[in-house]
Amino acid sequence: MKTIDCITYFNEPLLFELRLNILNNFVDEFVVCEAKYTHAGRKKELNFDINRFKKFKNKINYIVVDNEPKDLKEINLADGPKNLIYRINAQKRIFHQREAIFEEVKKNNNEDWVIYSDSDEIPNLKNFSLEKCNKKIVIFNQRLFYYKFNLCLSDNEWYGSKACRVKDLVSITHLRNIKTKKYSWWRLDTLFKKEKFIDLQIVQNGGWHFSEIKSPEEIYKKHINDEHHDEFELTGINLDDVKNMIKNRYIHYNHKADKKDLNKRWGKDVRVKLTKVNEDLLPEFIVENRKKYSEWFD
Question: Is residue 231 predicted with pLDDT exceeding 60?
């Protein structure tokens, strides 16, 4: 049995370096999938450089998606608001990129474990063994950090990395969309809803979501190219706003607000404070190499 860690990649060499070093003792293969188009549909250069990670080269499986999905919707206002069509197309591009991962990992043994994460989510496998797990689905409850390794959104739970065996993998997107709640045996709707599971384990202290550990310019570039690029553009947040957010330790996004109310959830008037936390909440590798990563500490 082996463990396969999978991510989609945009341009996060620092986070991938951390991922390799934190997970190396627990993971047999790292699958990295990069696309030549952003989620917003802009053509991009390939950014992943395997030569930056020579120590781990024999464990890295790098996949390139060089084409767009064939079923993208045309921008036709008769089909709905323009931002809705943008979102649908972004989701299709994400699904297309994840499917490339699925096609690769399903070649493995049925009993092998597959972990899928966004590139800034790192599961904690130090105190949890997938090999000994008898559940179909594993979900990692992770702490959420912004801008710096020691700035935390402390009252927020983040269910990021998710895992299952190859034999239970329907698709990467399906794995990503599995609900984080563990349902009781008598919930009959779990028989009909593919995203609801009884046979599920949630791992507490399950890792770290290092969101936006980037320069202000990189953060801004990320937001105008990712899945939610349409919403970000509506907020009017600019590069100076991003710099101010980092300087004053807050985010312009309320994770607890109604998802349907954009103005309360995301915008210049939304200010959610971040908390500076102790280093004992961080991976040992980061603490041991604090000097090397000093610019990413507040």
Answer: yes
The average confidence (pLDDT) of the chain is: 89
Please state the domain count of the chain.
2
- Distance (Å, whole) CA 221 – CA 229: 10
CATH of residue 189's domain is: 3.90.550
Mean of pLDDT values over 249-264: 83
d(CA 25, CA 120): 19
Query: Does residue 229 or residue 120 have the better pLDDT?
Result: 120
Q: Which amino acid is at 249?
A: R
Residue 186 pLDDT more than 80?
no
Quick check: is 280 in a domain? Answer: no
Does 289 fall in a domain? no
Strand 158-165 and strand 137-146: the pairing is: antiparallel
CA-based R_g, the chain, Å:
19
Residues 100, 7 share a domain: yes
Cα–Cα distance measured from residue 285 to residue 272, given in angstroms and rounded to the nearest whole number: 29
For 77, the domain range is 3-209
Spatial neighbors of 260 by CB under 8 A, at least 6 apart, are none
What is the pLDDT averaged over residues 23-52?
95
Judge if 153 and 229 occupy the same domain.
Answer: no
